[in-house]
Amino acid sequence: MKVLVTGSAGRFGRSVVAGLAAAGHEVVGVDLRPGDAGPCAAVQSADVSDVGEAFQVVARHRPQAVVHLAAIAAPFSHSGGLTYRVNTQAAFGICEAAVQLGVERVIIASSPTVIGYGAPGGWTPDYLPLDEDHPVRPWNAYSLSKAAAEQAMRSFTLAAAGSVRFAAVRPCFVVAPEEWTGASTQTGHTIAERLDSPEISGQALFNYLDARDGAEMVEQLLRAMPEIPNGEVFFAGAPDALSREPVADLLPRFHPGTAKFAESVSGTDPVFSTAKAERLIGWRPKRSWRTELPEHHAIRTDDEVPST
């Protein structure tokens, strides 16, 4: 397919572009600062939070599919008003352009933060591990913008009446390939530092995702969309938690409201379930910090092997 990827130069976008191109798709990259074309057939600089620019790039390239990753990508990195406006308008504009201009498939990037962990007044899940049926409780501008993007996708799914296939992906904390060898993550810490100091990853329930695994999920989802229910939402996460210690011991330390459910998470299994993605599109994550982090950073013991 011809696939337009917004946010193509980002830490997730670069891997998505590479994965789609390697799978044989013609990729058009769109970003405010797109950089070199790399494996893209074409690149374009555009601000898709401007609805007119969103329409312009879709009309110019006429893709069969759009993977919308462009966004302010982290909570509290910008003002709340700017974060909400940019992220919601970009999702709306891309969805509307897709419906109006005949795009066949659209994937929208959401976030696990819609679940609401980290709320200042405390957070208690309905159950653990978390799956896509768990209620969303966004409490900041970023998580609210992602919940709104999901709702926009659902609305356009209804508006398109089946003519466009939609899906949303909630990628966990994305780790780009270079970050395994010491480059800073989006929080400014290295992966080794996040493992050595559980309070860093504990804030986000120890979730993470190798960007290449995420790219493989996007490609498999694009292929499967005609055969699965329209408007589905999927978690995308690693096969384990970003932790050397049992998650059940650590979670109540950082999120007291999880105490009565923490024992439902075995060993260092992930808190976010990807069973739905495996069931509907056949995707399973392959990479973890145990396979990707250089040996001198990760000392593996029998206790650290995930049970799944």
Topology:
Elements (H helix, E strand, L loop, with lengths): L1 E5 L6 H10 L3 E6 L10 E4 L5 H11 L3 E4 L11 H22 L3 E5 L31 H20 L4 E7 L2 E2 L15 H6 L1 H5 L6 E2 H14 L7 E5 L10 H8 L20 H7 L7 H4 L16
Parallel strand pairs: 1-2, 1-4, 2-3, 4-5, 5-6, 6-9, 7-8
Mean pLDDT, all residues: 95
Q: Based on helices, strands and strand pairing, what is the structural class?
A: alpha/beta
Order of helices and strands: EHEEHEHEHEEHHEHEHHH
Number of DSSP helices?
Answer: 10
Please mark out the parts with pLDDT under 50 across 5 or more consecutive residues, or reply none.
Answer: 296-308
Q: Beta-strand level of the residues, as a percent range? A: 5-15%
In helices, the fraction of residues equals 25-40%
Strand order of the largest sheet: 3-2-1-4-5-6-9
The major pleated sheet works out as:
7 strands, parallel
What is the number of strand segments? 9
Cα shape: globular
Instruction: Compute the separation of the termini in Å.
Output: 34 Å
As a whole number of angstroms, the C-alpha radius of gyration is 19 Å
Features:
308 residues, alpha/beta, 7-stranded parallel sheet, two-stranded parallel sheet, 13% strand
